[in-house]
Amino acid sequence: MENQVLDYLIVGAGVAGSSLAYELSKKNLNICLIEKGVFTKSGASSVPLALANPHRGRSARAKQSDRDCIDNFWQLVKELESKNIKTGVYAPGVLRIASNAKQIKNWLKNSKAKALSSEEIEAPYHAPWGGILVEQGAYIEPQIYLQALIKAAKNIKLIENTKVLEVTGNANFNIIETSKSELKAKTVIFCTGPESQQRFALPKTEPVAGELIALKSNLKMPYPIAGAVYGMSMHGQIQIGGNHRHDGRQDPDADKKLRKSFSWFIKELSDAPIADVWTGVRAKAADNKPFFKEIRQNQYFFGGLGGRGFLCASKLAKRLAKII
Questions:
Q1: Residue 167, strand partner residues
Q2: At what angle are helices 309-323 and 64-82 packed, to 10 degrees?
Q3: Best label site of 58, 74, 210, 237, fewest CB within 10 Å?
Q4: Is-above-0.70 flag for pTM?
Q5: DSSP structural state of residue 56
């Protein structure tokens, strides 16, 4: 591969890079996806549970851009399933439980999601003021989802455990120095986290750290819960995420705080043993809008996904693939 000039080199194999690799593969060109760690097991996209939920924020309003993203997400899932590829996407809808009467009143005013009374939200949930069901929502096992994208892609070379050290270019192609070899590519797209900003002079994003904990519990949840904290029952455990903070600020009690916050919605989990803790750092755009940008001739950046990665990556990747 050292002597071959690739059409595209994608740096970073998280949800942004893998989604872009899938869309670019439709052009039937030579594409390389390079990952500094183990594919599906490193970076923010290695989180054990993700949600696709367009009704976000305190108002639970779905922006038009997020509506477009969820429509594209389901189109992509349909494409993958038509190839008999397991996607790791499950579609019971996503439940948001109100924590007070004012909140549910605001949600019903701003959201077109299905309203549920307290009587309609049955055990194990605690929902004295009711909630809303986002019927388009889904929960995702990210490792399976990312593997599905690469399995469905054509002409993709995946290189793991390899760091990109330097990228230089000329009028014809980019020269990429890695920890293993030198590569050449006509176009380079950085789909990396915040740690690569200064090294490669990439657009600035905000690093946001967070945890996801696994609780030992056989409790079954019909719907995943979304909100400031989120969670779902999976494989004999309850996976709970949320409580994001600026990277670098340590919180030794983050796992216990997550359990306490989530147990308001499901009382039985207040003392459930913590089986495992995942920690990751997301790159968030200042305006909370994921983006792509040309940074130099034949070099692009695609990122700033923050908490919208699995919701918006496929839509943005499709748009980017059309212009590069």
A1: 176
A2: 80
A3: 58
A4: yes
A5: -
- Contact assessment for residue 100 and residue 131, using Cβ atoms and an 8 Å cutoff: no
Give 5-49+144-204+286-323's CATH code, choosing from 3.40.50.2000, 3.50.50.60, 3.60.15.10, 3.40.1380.20: 3.50.50.60
Which residues, other chains included, contact 4 with Cβ-Cβ below 8 Å and sequence gap of 6+? Answer: 30, 184
Distance, in Å, from the CA atom of 23 to the CA atom of 77, rounded to the nearest integer, reads 13
Helix (H, G, I), strand (E, B) or coil at 103: helix
Distance (Å, whole) CA 241 – CA 208: 13
Q: Which residues pair with 95 in a beta bridge?
A: 133, 225
Tokens 């919180």 correspond to: 251
Rounded (to 5) percent helix, strand, coil in the chain: 30, 35, 40
Looking at domain 90-139+206-284, its CATH architecture is 2-Layer Sandwich (3.30)
Taking alpha carbons only, the member of 236, 132, 126, 176 closest to residue 4 is 176
pLDDT tens-place values along the chain, 324 residues long: 557 899 999 999 999 999 999 999 999 999 999 999 999 999 999 999 999 999 998 899 999 999 999 999 999 999 999 999 999 999 999 999 999 999 999 999 988 899 999 999 999 999 999 999 999 999 999 999 999 999 999 889 999 999 999 999 877 899 999 999 999 999 999 999 887 888 899 999 999 888 999 999 999 999 999 999 999 999 999 999 986 766 666 778 889 999 999 999 999 999 999 999 999 999 999 898 999 999 999 999 999 999 999 999 999 999 999 999
Assigned token pair, 25: 């593969």
DSSP string covering 73-87:
HHHHHHHHHHTT---
Residue type, 295: I
Q: Which amino acid is at 122?
A: E
Q: Are 3 and 14 in contact (CB under 8 A)?
A: no
